[in-house]
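User: Just a sanity check before I run the rest of the batch. Below are the C-alpha cells for the first item. I only need the designed sequence back.
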C-alpha cells in the first residue's frame, strides 16, 4: 500500500472563496443556470439486451419488449442529462472522454430503477455522478460551479409595518438587500 503523499479526494475540498485559494489562483468555472439547447451526441453504448432463461428449452431467450423499453428509458434519460447546465462543459472537445462515462451513468440509472438493483449498483451510480459533475463534490472536483441568481441583490418580500401597509395598500413590501462586502 502506498505511504504518504497526496491522494485523490483526500482532505477537504478547496474553498474557492478563501484567501488561500485566491493566492493559488483557484477559481471555479461558472456554468450558466439555464437549460442547454444543443443537440445531444449519439448514445455511445450498444443497445441493452435483456434475456430470460427458458426452463423448458434450457436456453436464454431475448426479451425484445423488455429490451425496447429499457433502451427507450436510456434514450429519455440521455436527453434529460444533455439539457442540464453541465452539458455545456461536456460538449467541449477536451471533455469528450466523459461521454462514455455519462452513458454508463445513464445505464446505471436504469439498472437502479429495476427491482433487481443491488446496493453495489447504487454505489457505482453515485461514483459516476461525482465523476461527471452531477453532484456538488463532482462539480467542485471538475472545477465547475453552476451560477445562481444574484441572491445578494435579489428583492425579498418582508412584512410591511402598519403605516406602510395603509400607505401602499399592500401587506408586504419589497426590500433590496445590499451586497455583502468581503474582507
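Assistant: Here's the designed sequence for the first item:
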Amino acid at each position: 500500500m502506498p505511504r504518504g503523499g497526496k491522494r485523490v479526494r483526500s482532505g477537504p475540498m478547496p474553498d474557492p472563496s478563501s484567501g488561500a485559494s485566491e493566492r493559488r489562483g483557484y477559481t471555479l468555472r461558472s456554468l450558466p443556470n439555464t437549460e442547454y439547447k444543443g443537440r445531444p451526441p449519439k448514445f455511445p453504448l450498444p443497445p441493452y439486451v435483456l434475456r430470460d432463461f427458458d426452463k423448458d428449452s434450457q436456453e436464454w431467450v431475448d426479451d425484445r419488449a423488455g429490451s425496447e423499453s429499457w433502451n427507450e428509458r436510456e434514450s429519455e434519460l440521455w436527453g434529460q442529462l444533455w439539457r442540464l447546465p453541465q452539458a455545456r462543459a461536456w460538449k467541449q472537445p477536451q471533455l469528450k472522454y466523459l461521454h462514455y462515462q455519462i452513458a454508463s451513468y445513464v445505464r446505471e440509472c436504469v439498472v437502479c430503477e429495476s427491482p433487481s438493483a443491488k446496493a453495489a449498483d447504487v454505489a457505482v451510480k453515485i461514483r459516476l455522478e461525482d465523476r461527471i459533475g452531477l453532484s456538488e463534490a463532482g462539480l467542485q472536483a471538475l472545477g465547475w460551479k453552476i451560477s445562481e441568481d444574484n441572491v445578494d441583490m435579489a428583492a425579498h418580500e418582508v412584512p410591511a409595518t402598519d403605516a406602510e401597509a395603509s400607505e401602499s395598500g399592500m401587506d408586504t413590501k419589497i426590500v433590496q438587500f445590499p451586497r455583502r462586502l468581503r474582507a
